[in-house]
Structures are given as structure tokens and as C-alpha cells.
């Protein structure tokens, strides 16, 4: 496998200095993570198609672009790949063509030929698609195929997101690249690093991703009580205090970000489903633990001692970026250190991360995590 990393700014593609030898006209796959500003003002897909004429091109809007160890806004991070022994296929569906995100996810996975399919990278619209239901739909037909990816972003505006799959990026698209054969070794890791506080409680009333009651009491009132003076900063302060959720039948928690609060109904809307019977605890940010979690995610993402990552895809949450602010590069640099500065890094800040929580587990939606997928092609 060969790969080359570029940053697109001000009309130019600047190639990252440690990219290896690469023939652009032979690229098989291009992953482009771009700010909305660039996508709105530039025919970026057209530029990429001319630069990499044979490649399957996947474009995703972001809440921040990762170009090796730097996090930027208002640019595009572009990675091109050549594979020697790994066929791949690009597929997409439009959420508008299906009754819900579950069926869209199911249809997307069904569109792949299952013979020899080993891994699927999924990039989805982050505003119109329910990430929890999407992952459940994909899992319903994926079998033992590994799934990772993320939901597109729109900075801190949370208005509309764009995905492009072999064409101009647009809203509502869910795209995926299927990788075939046994030569590509893929590892994954996902960690949050948040600190829990307060007692564990049970969800007693909810509808999909809207939470109404915890332990039979108004959820918003309980949330404000635990936040204390910080509650005056709602709804913005909610990004600093997500929930740890153990879904029914699960043993390990996932993190759920609060997207909005509704005072008239005293409810909270989350970036992921919170079914009745879930166990929840409140969480708060700890800068050092967030960075340490990124290191742990990197350590867990290595496919094996014989497969040092040639490329690592980093998908982290916009909430982490808003919290870490000027220290945001630290979590990316921590990943680079784990890989001994030998692995090309690229990715984006998202509205949700898709990955199994543990090795061999099913893909699920995460919030406020650093999720890493590593790639190594065996000769």
C-alpha cells in the first residue's frame, strides 16, 4: 500500500513532506475531509477528479481537519491510496429514499457483494441521519465484517453537512468503501477519557434519542442539579457534561452528547439513542484524560505486532475540539507518539464516531471519543 497526504488551501494542494513515492494517476482511493467553506466556494470534487483520475473519491465535510499532527479549519485534508492486492468498491445511499436510518444502513450494506468483503469504511451525513439506527441497520447484515467511520460535521454551526461519493458533495448521503481480500489488515480503537461523577441511574422514559425521565424523575431537572452553577451555561455547557450510557444488554458504556434541551417539555435530545432501561452516569471533561484516551485508542488500534500501521484514520468528536481548544493538537500528537512518528495520519472532527467498542464487537455510534482505524497491506 502506498499513500500520500495533501493539504488543500488557497487553491493549491501542498503535499505532506513524509508522504512516500506515489503516482497520482494510479490512485485507487481518495479520502477528502474538508471544511464547509472550501466545499461551498470550490469545486473540490472536480479538482480531485482531475488530479486523481482513476480514484474512487469520497468527500466529507468536517468540524475540523486533521492533516498528520495538525488540526486546522477552513482547509481540506486529502489522502490518496494505491493498493497492490486489495480491491475496493464505493457505494452510497440517500437517506431521503428510505423510511429511516436503520433501513438506509441495511440497504447500504446489502449493496456490497459479501464474498471476500473484509472491511467497510462508512462516512455519513451528520444532520439528517440517526447514527445509532444507521449502525444497527448495517450490523443487521454485516456479519463479521468490520465497520468503522463517522458522521460529517459543519464546524460548530450544526446546520447542514455534506458527503460526496464519486460526485459533488450534498446533504443526506451515506457513503461507504468496501475493501476485499485478506491482504489488508485493519485495526481499530476508540476511547473517550471522560470522568464520571454521581450515582448510576436508570432511564425510565425516552423516545429514540430524546430523554424525559431518569429514575422516574424529570431528566432535565436532575441534569441541572448535578451541574450546579454550570447549568446557567446551558445549552452550550452540555458539551462539557455528556452522559455515560450502558445500553440494555451491554456491559461497557458509550458516551452520548447532548445536542439540545427543550425547557417546555423538560427534555434533552442526544446525538444517539438512549432507550428505556439504559443505565446512565454524568461525565465531565478532564484535559489530561482526554489526551491519554487518544493514546489508548492508538495502542488498541494496531492490528498486530506484524502489522505496523502504514496509515491511521483519526475521527474525533467536535465536542472534544470545543473543549481542548488551543490544546487540540495534543491529542493528535499523542497518537503520533504511540505510532513512533512512522505512520501517516489524517481524519476529521465529527458529529459522531462509528466503531466497535471492543475487538470483535458490533459497530455502534460513539460521541466525544477519539476513534482510530489503522491500515496495513501485506505484500
TrEMBL record:
This is FIST-like protein. It comes from the Bacteria. Residues 26-218 form the FIST domain. Pfam families: FIST, FIST_C. It comes from Dinghuibacter silviterrae. Residues 219-357 form the FIST C-domain domain.
Amino acid at each position: 500500500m502506498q499513500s500520500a497526504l495533501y493539504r488543500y488551501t488557497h487553491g493549491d494542494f501542498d503535499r505532506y513532506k513524509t508522504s512516500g513515492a506515489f503516482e497520482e494517476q494510479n490512485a485507487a482511493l481518495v479520502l477528502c475531509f474538508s471544511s464547509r467553506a472550501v466545499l461551498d466556494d470550490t469545486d473540490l470534487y472536480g479538482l480531485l477528479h482531475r488530479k486523481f483520475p482513476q480514484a474512487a473519491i469520497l468527500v466529507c465535510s468536517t468540524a475540523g481537519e486533521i492533516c498528520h499532527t495538525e488540526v486546522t479549519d477552513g482547509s481540506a485534508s486529502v489522502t490518496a491510496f494505491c493498493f497492490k492486492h486489495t480491491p475496493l468498491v464505493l457505494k452510497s445511499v440517500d437517506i431521503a429514499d428510505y423510511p429511516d436510518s436503520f433501513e438506509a444502513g441495511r440497504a447500504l450494506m446489502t449493496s456490497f457483494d459479501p464474498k471476500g468483503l473484509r472491511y467497510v469504511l462508512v462516512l455519513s451525513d451528520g444532520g439528517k441521519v440517526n447514527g445509532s439506527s444507521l449502525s444497527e441497520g448495517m450490523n443487521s447484515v454485516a456479519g463479521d465484517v468490520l465497520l468503522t467511520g463517522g458522521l460529517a460535521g459543519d464546524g460548530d454551526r450544526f446546520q447542514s453537512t455534506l458527503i460526496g461519493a464519486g460526485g459533488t458533495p450534498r446533504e443526506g448521503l451515506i457513503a461507504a468503501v468496501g475493501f476485499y481480500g485478506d491482504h489488508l489488515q485493519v485495526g481499530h480503537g476508540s476511547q473517550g477519557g471522560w470522568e464520571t461523577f454521581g450515582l448510576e441511574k436508570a432511564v425510565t422514559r425516552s423516545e429514540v434519542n430524546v430523554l424525559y425521565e431518569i429514575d422516574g424523575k424529570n431528566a432535565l431537572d436532575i441534569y441541572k442539579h448535578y451541574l450546579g452553577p454550570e447549568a446557567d451555561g446551558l445549552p452550550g455547557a452540555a458539551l462539557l457534561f455528556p452522559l455515560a450510557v450502558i445500553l440494555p444488554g451491554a456491559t461497557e458504556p458509550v458516551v452520548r452528547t447532548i445536542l439540545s434541551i427543550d425547557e417546555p417539555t423538560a427534555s434533552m435530545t442526544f446525538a444517539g439513542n438512549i432507550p428505556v432501561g439504559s443505565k446512565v452516569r454524568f461525565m465531565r471533561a478532564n484535559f489530561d484524560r482526554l489526551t491519554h484516551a487518544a493514546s489508548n485508542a492508538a495502542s488498541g488500534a494496531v492490528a498486530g505486532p506484524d502489522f505496523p500501521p502504514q496509515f491511521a484514520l483519526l475521527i474525533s468528536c467536535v465536542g472534544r475540539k470545543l473543549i481542548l481548544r488551543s490544546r487540540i493538537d495534543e491529542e493528535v500528537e499523542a497518537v503520533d507518539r504511540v505510532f513512533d512518528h512512522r505512520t501517516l495520519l489524517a481524519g476529521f472532527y465529527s458529529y459522531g464516531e462509528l466503531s466497535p467498542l471492543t475487538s470483535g464487537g458490533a459497530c455502534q455510534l460513539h460521541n466525544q471519543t477519539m476513534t482510530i482505524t489503522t491500515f496495513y497491506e501485506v505484500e
